[in-house]
Amino acid sequence: MQILQPPDWVRPRGYANGVVAKGSLVFTSGQLGWDGQGQFQSERYADQARQALQNIVTVLAQAGAKPEHIVRLTWYVTDRAAYLEQAKEVGQSYRELIGHFPTMSAFQVSALMVDGAKVEIEATAVIPD
């Protein structure tokens, strides 16, 4: 994987401007912050974000992919204030579970399709040839 960083651009913090990768593509559906049995263990945004990231790691493993193969994440959050207030805690979980910064987009949405869900995260990974 090659990170794309135009030389005259300010370096982004917490994401990459672009990525080039070759290999097998792996796509996850949006992962919520619930456990494998579809139960929320917490109502807190940071806890649900950590669980959603763990769910992504678990799904990717089914294809033989690892967190370092992730090239894109898309975050949907229901509460921008919680996203910002708990960013340090989420960042710690993120570094522990994912460990690198691929391309990312984040959106505040009015609600997710599952009651009680605070965050949904989609991932795209590329397993090198």
From TrEMBL:
InterPro entries: RutC-like_sf, YjgF/YER057c/UK114. CDD domains: YjgF_YER057c_UK114_family. SUPFAM superfamilies: YjgF-like (SSF55298). It comes from the Bacteria. Pfam families: Ribonuc_L-PSP (PF01042). This is Putative translation initiation inhibitor yjgF family. It comes from Solimicrobium silvestre.
